[in-house]
Design brief:
Layout (H helix, E strand, L loop, with lengths): L3 E5 L4 H12 L3 E6 L13 E3 L8 H8 L3 E4 L6 H6 L1 H26 L4 E7 L22 H20 L2 E7 L2 E2 L8 H13 L6 E3 L5 E2 L2 E2 H12 L7 E3 L5 E2 H10 L9 E3 L17 H7 L7 H26 L1
Parallel strand pairs: 1-2, 1-4, 2-3, 4-5, 5-6, 6-11, 7-10, 8-13
Antiparallel strand pairs: 9-12
The chain binds ligand F7E.
The site of ligand F7E has 23 residues, from α3 and α6.
GO biological process, one term: 'de novo' GDP-L-fucose biosynthetic process
Catalytic activity: GDP-alpha-D-mannose = GDP-4-dehydro-alpha-D-rhamnose + H2O
InterPro entries: GDP_Man_deHydtase (IPR006368), NAD(P)-bd_dom (IPR016040), NAD(P)-bd_dom_sf (IPR036291)
């Protein structure tokens, strides 16, 4: 019998890589999306619509899918936006997780079956860091409505594990990127601008705090860690990252460097992209994941920047040809 996985936020970057990975392992993959609504745009096959700010159809979805594993990736995940939409972010990114955990608990009771649950926890929870690198034992100091909501979800996951014996785990993932990253996140914003500047479609790139440092890895590598976390004998929490930190400046250097341009000629600072409270430095200590999951990232920082620039160049060239042919 095929194992059945349910992925929330299947329409996002991580949902894409995870469903491909699981299909490669012969899973039957189902998804939850908030992007297409019945009657407006039907969800694709094996996908269900759910708004995590409501969640009233989660019991129904659990009954239909009867999953062995649930990967909870859905969230309002943009940190800057969470300052403008704090209550919505708390509803979706925080209480939404609780709604799902409770639907799983109910399903387990009714069906006498154990579901393995993965919560997409975030390095943003470390926020104003008290030690570097950050491991599973580093205390949290969240610095945004998004990070506060993720801390809530982190503890609810542990609470359901301890209260009801659920196989519920946290993967504390540091920043992970790819050509499928949303355009509002800094890496993709940069690589898209590099492509447009190189092809003569844009001449400036406006950014916020370029001294911030992040531990950036490739999303395609990180979904394997999500799966490994749910294959362990006991439920547990893991930090997933590369162990290397780079500033936004260094990403600019790598991305513009990939097409032999000097970023200093094109980048300007615009305070509208500053955050009311910033997370200055994140760097993972992934020792536990290396030792217990036998997991290691494969794509380096430079390879990641180059991969994203090349994908954006290809996409932008096609757009340019299309625009020129319809002019
Ligand atoms: C792990 C974690 O990873 C992500 O959160 P993030 O680190 O906030 O990602 P980002 O790409 O928005 O910002 C990275 C850094 O770059 C700085 N920065 C400068 N100038 C711009 C700028 O113009 N735009 C943006 N977005 N950032 C800028 C910004 O101030 C910050 O210091 C999410 O996936 C989140 O869901 C998550 O869980």
């Amino acid at each position: 019998m095929k194992r059945v996985a349910l992925i929330t936020g299947i329409n996002g970057q991580d949902g894409y890589y995870l469903s491909r990975f699981l299909k490669g392992k012969d899973y039957e993959v189902h998804g939850i999306t908030s992007c297409s609504k019945p009657g407006i745009g039907e969800p694709p096959e094996n996908c269900y619509y759910c708004d995590f700010a409501d969640g009233s159809n989660l019991n129904e979805i659990m009954d239909k899918v009867k999953p062995d594993e649930v990967y909870h990736l859905a969230a309002q995940s943009h940190v800057r936006l969470s300052f403008d939409l704090p209550v919505y972010t708390a509803e979706v990114t925080g209480v939404g997780t609780l709604r799902l955990l409770d639907a799983i608990r109910y399903f387990e009771q009714q069906n006498d079956k154990q579901v393995h649950f993965y919560q997409a926890s975030s390095s943003e929870m470390f926020g104003k860091v008290v030690e570097t690198p950050q491991s599973e034992t580093t205390p949290f100091h969240p610095r945004s409505p998004y990070a506060c909501a993720k801390v809530f979800s982190y503890w609810q996951t542990i609470n359901y594990r301890e209260s009801y014996g659920m196989f519920a785990c946290n993967g504390i993932l540091f920043n992970h990127e790819s050509p499928r990253r949303g355009e509002a996140f800094v890496t993709r914003k940069i690589t898209q601008a590099v492509a447009r500047i190189k092809l003569g479609l844009q001449d400036k790139l406006y950014l916020g705090n370029i001294d911030a440092k992040r531990d950036w890895g490739f999303a395609g590598d990180y979904v394997e860690a999500m799966w490994l976390i749910l294959q362990q004998e006991k439920p547990d929490d893991f930090v997933i990252g590369t162990g290397e930190t780079h500033s936004v400046r260094e990403f600019l250097e790598a991305a513009f460097g990939a097409v032999e341009l000097d970023w200093k000629k094109y980048v300007e600072i615009d305070p509208q992209f500053y955050r009311p409270a910033e997370v200055e430095l994140l760097c993972a200590d992934p020792t536990k994941a290396r030792e217990k999951l036998n997991w290691e990232p494969k794509v380096s920082f430079e390879e990641l920047a180059r991969m994203m620039v090349e994908a954006d160049l290809k996409r932008t060239r096609q757009e340019k040809i299309l625009n020129e042919s319809t002019d």
